[in-house]
Specification:
It is a single chain. The protein has 3 domains: about 160 residues, Beta-Lactamase (2-Layer Sandwich); about 140 residues, GAF domain (Beta-Lactamase, 2-Layer Sandwich), CATH 3.30.450.40; about 220 residues, PPM-type phosphatase domain (Phosphatase 2c, domain 1). A hairpin with a 5-residue loop joins strand 7 and strand 8. Helix 2 runs antiparallel to helix 4. It contains 14 helices and 22 strands. The chain has about 575 residues and is an alpha+beta fold. The strands form 4 sheets. The protein has a 6-stranded antiparallel sheet, with helices on both faces. Strands 13, 14, 15, 16, 19 and 20 form a 6-stranded mixed sheet that branches. The chain has a 5-stranded antiparallel sheet with strand order 8-7-11-10-9, with helices on both faces.
């Protein structure tokens, strides 16, 4: 009887000690929100109590997968590795009782003898792994019970610590995002501080090198021809040795990349190999309006730490932001160039208009009028009338192939040549012959001029003309008949030393001479129908015959009514005169 009582007292005392130990352990576990501290306490306490030399704690990561979080007496290479174990038990079990063959073999390899689940609301949070006890003694029932109780007490602390760790990680990520946003804001201010593309690209490169702690950085930008060209080269002693900088095919492949990625993830094998060969670790496209307009290539970090997904995201945002600044700079430069060109064209227009006659000659018995409406700011049509002497007046109309500045320069050449030669004592055909040679000598093969030149003797009423491939002018007689003036030769500038013929016609009172360029006859409406010569003939015959200026204005308005809302496609030029007495 006394032995029985003594045994009960010892068991009672042992229970009190265990309860006190569990109570103290519970206070220790719940006083810390550091997951590592909680796990260390949970592992070291039973190892010290049961004299165990090695053990580990695993936390559940996904179905039947546990990740090693802490080890004692085992290789630290195991940390972070995952083990597959079926966790369908709720009490500590001996390693031999495990059914999962693969997991069992791995644990046995590292000397694990006991596995205890960490449960919370019938959910397995993790596992306590324990090796053999000192002297290889078996685990007692009270030890297993103590281990199970301790694991259950630790479960809330593990959950709380895990939640806090997740919150801390979220806060860390938020802090990093805020820092990145501040960095992007600061860099953005620097990028927008200038509108020079070279400065923007260099500022971007230095910002990337500073933020990413890298030495190598390449920036490629698409030029006006859509070709990807290197804009910034940093960190290479001999840039021409990097194939990406010189190989047009590889550069074209860079614009095909639409996502930021590591070098080893680049799909194009040649680009991937060249990046790795050149020590480039990242490829980041620069996108604006859903189109890749450039890319950033970044070398490895100086401290050799790997790039993370957040780094790619940061660089992609920075690159796209820089691309907006680069596009704004490009658009501004284009606007400046366009405004400068508009200003120069306006000056050229004023000069060209100054070459045209300011007013028709005043001659008794004759009424002259001319009109020129260029389709662009400057054009290639030309008309002129001026006195050669007291009785004779020169009339000219021409159409230079093409439009714009080139045509206007050729028109100026024609005007200068005509004014220089018309006063010489050459026949009209000889004048045109010489002008043709000058035009041929000073223009490329694809440039030419249709030209009509006439001299009217206002005293005798005779008109001598040469038509060098121009739209034949009309002579309208009071009886309603029309005659076309077609005698001449080849258009100017096509071939040298070409002969030209001239014809002399006697004009009488009431006759009209109407000349025009193909901007009149070929003017098109919205249905792409041309005005054509028959409408000009109809207008000449039906128009009210008042003065020459009203005649040209009326023909101009008739052409405009025919064209409707269709844009003017060519210069419109007319030269008209009539015999009034």
């Amino acid at each position: 009887m006394p032995d029985t009582i003594g045994g009960l007292e010892r068991e009672h005392d042992q229970r009190l000690v265990e309860l006190q130990s569990l109570f103290e352990l519970s206070k220790t576990l719940n006083s810390s929100f550091n997951l590592q501290t909680v796990l260390n306490t949970l592992l070291f306490t039973p190892m010290g109590r049961m004299l165990i030399a090695h053990g580990a704690i695993l936390l559940h990561s996904e179905k039947d997968q546990f990740k090693i979080q802490i080890v004692k007496g085992l290789s630290r290479d195991l940390l972070g590795k995952s083990i597959s174990l079926q966790n369908d038990w709720d009490q500590p079990v001996h390693i031999d009782e495990l059914q999962d063959a693969a997991g069992k073999a791995l644990l046995q390899k590292h000397g694990i003898r006991l596995v205890s689940p960490i449960l919370s609301n019938n959910k397995c949070l993790g596992l306590i792994l324990l090796g053999k006890k000192l002297g290889d003694q078996p685990f007692k029932a009270d030890e297993l019970e103590y281990l199970s109780s301790m694991a259950n007490l630790a479960a809330p602390a593990i959950e709380n610590s895990s939640y806090i760790k997740e919150l801390q990680e979220v806060n860390r990520q938020l802090d990093k995002k805020i820092q990145e946003l501040n960095t992007l804001f600061d860099i953005g201010k620097e990028l927008n501080a200038t509108l020079e593309r070279d400065k923007i690209a260099n500022t971007l490169a230095y910002a990337i090198m500073g933020e990413m702690m890298v030495q190598k950085c390449l920036i490629f930008l698409e030029n006006e021809q859509g070709v990807c060209m290197p804009q910034v080269i940093k960190g290479f002693r001999r840039p021409n040795e990097v194939a990406l900088i010189a190989d047009a095919d590889l550069q074209e492949c860079l614009l095909a990349c639409t996502n930021a990625q590591l070098a080893e993830e680049v799909e194009n094998e040649q680009v991937r190999q060249e990046m790795q060969k050149s020590g480039l670790a990242l490829l980041v496209p620069m996108i604006t309006q859903d189109k890749v307009k450039g890319c950033i290539l970044v070398g490895g970090r100086l401290n050799a730490t790997p790039f993370q997904h957040e780094d790619l995201e940061f660089l992609a945002t920075l690159g796209n932001s820089a691309m907006i600044s680069l596009e704004n700079a490009r658009l501004l430069q284009e606007t400046i160039i366009k405004e400068r060109l508009e200003e120069e064209l306006s000056i050229a227009r004023d000069i060209q208009q100054g070459l045209l006659p300011k007013s028709p000659p005043k001659v008794d018995g004759y009424d002259f009028a001319g009109l020129n409406i260029p389709s662009l700011q400057v054009g290639g049509d030309y008309y002129d009338y001026f006195k050669i002497d007291e009785n004779r007046i020169a009339l000219a109309i021409g159409d230079v192939s093409g439009k714009g500045v080139g045509a206007s320069l050729l028109m100026s050449n024609l005007q200068a040549s005509l004014h220089a030669m018309i006063h010489a004592k050459w026949s009209l055909s000889e004048v045109v012959f010489r002008i043709n040679n000058i035009i041929h000598q000073n223009t490329p093969f694809d440039k030419f001029i249709t030209f009509f030149l006439a001299i009217v003797d206002c005293k005798s009423g005779e008109m001598t003309y040469v038509n060098a491939g121009h739209n034949p002018p009309y002579i309208y007689h009071p009886d309603g008949t029309l005659k076309t003036l077609e005698v001449g030769g080849l258009i100017l500038g096509m071939m040298p030393n070409m002969p030209y013929e001239q014809e002399t016609i006697k004009l009488t009172k009431g006759d009209w001479v109407v000349s025009f360029t193909d901007g009149v006859s070929e003017a098109m409406n919205e249905d792409e129908e041309e005005y054509e010569e028959y409408r000009i003939e109809s207008y000449i015959q039906t128009a009210e015959k008042r003065d020459a200026a009203q005649f040209t204005d009326g023909l101009k308005e008739d052409v405009r009514r025919f064209c409707g809302n269709a844009p003017q496609s060519d210069d419109i030029t007319m030269l008209v005169f009539r015999i009034t007495g």
